[in-house]
Write a structure and sequence with these properties.
Elements: H1 10-16, E1 18-21, E2 25-31, E3 38-42, H2 51-71, E4 78-84, H3 93-105
Parallel strand pairs: 3-4
Antiparallel strand pairs: 1-2, 2-4
Helix pairs in contact: 2-3
């Protein structure tokens, strides 16, 4: 089972979902009762100029979400889009995972 959100679903999550802001991330969530938990990630060039930094932020967010799904913290029937903020640079996967856990709890 893949935890990646297909590109065509991003617009749906942004249009019909709601957002919560954190220190490292902005999370958009959409309830989909029949869907497995999936997430998409967005990292802007404005916040991260170098491709290496953008790719690291994406890897951190994907891995943190995968671990949360594995632990059962993120329930079924939700689709997420996480947008990285500049503060995510230099953070560990544990930091990102804790932030995601907090954002998931706020819903």
């Amino acid at each position: 089972m893949s935890t990646r959100l297909p590109g065509a679903k991003y617009k749906t999550v942004f249009d019909r979902g709601r957002s919560v802001k954190g220190r490292l991330l902005v999370a958009w969530r959409l309830e989909s009762p029949d869907a497995d938990p999936r997430a998409g990630v967005v990292v802007s060039k404005k916040s991260f100029h170098d491709a290496v930094d953008r790719n690291r932020a994406k890897r951190l967010m994907r891995e943190a979400f995968r671990l949360l799904v594995k632990d059962g913290t993120v329930g079924a029937g939700t689709e997420w889009v996480f947008i990285a903020r500049a503060a995510i640079g230099g953070r560990t996967c544990r930091d990102v995972m804790d932030e995601m856990k907090g954002l998931c709890a706020r819903y």
